[in-house]
Design goal:
357 residues; alpha+beta; 11 helices
């Protein structure tokens, strides 16, 4: 029997630490058409669930929603209690865990999102919302162009420009530029020019070059020079073309290193060729041929099994929703009396044989 608890939701304790942000594409997602927050939003929940719900409700979109991060940021409950509270909030209709397949820039990856609703929603509402979310096209990320400031640009926008006369002053005659011959170097150049990385259309180093350049800071045994990064840039770019990110590539190159690496460039080249992941096909979205794909699979809040939203009730899959059969309610067939009769008959036969002797 559920007892109504009309006390307001517990306020999450103030913390000086910032909210932990999830990786791009992961984390909290608030459902649309949220009503303004009130003191009695989670009044009918138990005390622990009220506290966790009040804390999650104050988190911004994109905040980390994993159990470890939530338990670390609030001191009252540990990971086991936070996990049980999140499962209870899912059954109550406040959240759903969803796996989403996104495709951006020709790459496909699965991300885990937690959709949050301040008001408790029923199963029909969640099914309609997730169906609309699956059919909604994903907007392309706008490319940000980096403008190069002119040579006369100043850090202070209010500072006067040298090539523009002040207001009311007579124009200043600018003498024509005088051609200055380049100085002759005293020592002839003996080293070859440093190889340049592929900067692409944006004029900046590629993500493959930057990932290789950061290897030495992540693992000192794999420190690469600029020439090494340029030589290995093309094999590393093939990894990104197959849908991996910088974290995946860094982990694949640095995992399980030997005690000493004599040739970092040879070791990294060998791993780039031997451990390259398979190429996964990317299915285009039916709504728009050129738009990134979106696929949704709801996760069971109890066991984490993925599936279609229609197969879930209260956020639970079929096996978790149906309780396990109680052995006391369904006893096994009465085979014990028959076994006892067979044993008794065997003992009687042994006694008769002993009497005959």
């Amino acid at each position: 029997m559920v007892t109504q608890n009309l006390s307001p939701a517990l306020c999450a304790p103030a913390s000086s630490r910032p909210y932990p942000k999830a990786k791009p594409g992961y984390g909290k997602r608030s459902v649309p058409d949220q009503r303004p927050p009130r003191e009695d939003d989670f009044a009918f929940l138990p005390e622990r669930e009220r506290h966790i719900a009040g804390y999650v409700d104050k988190l911004p979109d994109g905040a980390a929603m994993d159990i470890k991060s939530l338990a670390k940021c609030q001191p009252l409950y540990g990971q086991m209690a936070v996990g049980s509270a999140l499962r209870a909030l899912g059954v109550a209709g406040h959240l759903r865990h969803v796996r989403c397949l996104t495709g951006e820039g020709g790459q496909a990856r699965w991300v885990t999102r937690t959709f949050w609703s301040r008001a408790a929603r029923d199963n029909e509402w969640w099914t309609a919302f997730l169906a609309a979310e699956e059919s909604r096209p994903v907007p392309q990320e706008a490319a940000v162009a980096v403008a190069t400031p002119p040579p006369w640009a100043s850090a202070d926008p209010a500072a006067p420009r040298a090539d523009v006369p002040a207001e009311g002053a007579a124009p200043v005659a600018v003498p024509p530029p005088v051609a200055v011959p380049p100085p002759v170097p005293a020592v002839p150049q003996q080293r070859t020019a440093e190889p340049k990385c592929d900067k692409g259309a944006s004029g900046h180093p590629s993500i493959a070059f930057l990932t290789l350049a950061q290897l030495g800071r992540t693992e000192t045994r794999l420190a690469l020079s600029a020439a090494d990064c340029t030589a290995l840039e093309q094999p590393a770019a093939e990894w990104f073309a197959r849908g991996v990110d910088a974290d995946y590539l860094t982990h694949a190159l640095t995992a399980g290193l030997p005690a000493a690496v004599d040739s970092p460039v040879g070791f990294v080249r060998r791993r780039l060729l031997d451990k390259i992941p398979p190429r996964l096909p990317v299915t285009p979205a039916p709504a728009a041929p050129g738009a990134p794909v979106r696929r949704l699979m709801v996760e069971c809040i109890e066991c984490g099994a993925p599936g279609k939203s229609e197969a879930f009730r209260d956020g639970l899959c079929g096996p978790c929703r149906e309780p396990a059969p109680d052995p006391a309610a369904h006893p096994a067939p009465e085979a014990a009396p028959a076994i006892e009769r067979d044993i008794q008959a065997h003992v009687n036969r042994l006694r008769e044989q002993l009497k005959l002797r």
